[in-house]
Amino acid sequence: MHNSESKIIQPVIYFDSVCGLCNSFVNTIMAWDKQQKYLFAPLQGDTAAERLTTHSIQSINTLVLQDDRGIHIKSDAALRILIQLGGVGKLAYLARIVPRALRDKVYDFVAANRYRWFGKKESCRIPTAAEQSRFLA
Fold first, then answer.
1. 96 CB-contact burial (10 Å; exposed 0-12 / middle 13-18 / buried 19+)
2. In what order do the strands lie in the sheet with 12-15?
3. Measured between alpha carbons, how far is 38 from 128 in angstroms, rounded to an integer?
4. Does the N-terminal or the C-terminal CB of the chain have fewer CB atoms within 10 Å?
5. Strands 12-15 and 39-42, how do they pair?
6. How far apart are CA 44 and CA 36, in angstroms?
7. Per-residue pLDDT tens digits for 119-132
8. Global pTM value
9. How far is Cα 33 from Cα 134, in angstroms, rounded to an integer?
10. Which SS3 state, helix, strand or coil, does residue 133 take?
11. Could you give phi then psi for residue 58, rounded to 5 degrees?
């Protein structure tokens, strides 16, 4: 899903901040993102509520990337992030061979089971002092 109604200066990754898998993915991105190109915002937060209102993001069962090319969800968002990070993340190019419909079915299956497999926190993630500048409300 793409939309170019507003230009985003710095890409924002929206994630389920109570999900163990999602938080692990954010930690991985932060470790690999040496240039600090990404900002992060919880899907449960004010920034997501303000910026994603015109899009059909009804559920917090998806990863969302908002960048200067628009809104990307599910497997497209994850692959785009990994590819942009470079290094070993560029291996994600290979996954693009798989049709999106099939990739998203696998994505949906993992999303439906993520709390059971990876845990669920009682409250949203609180960024550390060192992470604070990269997190939006």
1. middle
2. 39-42, 12-15, 64-67, 70-73
3. 16
4. C
5. parallel
6. 23
7. 888 767 778 788 88
8. 0.84
9. 11
10. helix
11. -80, -25
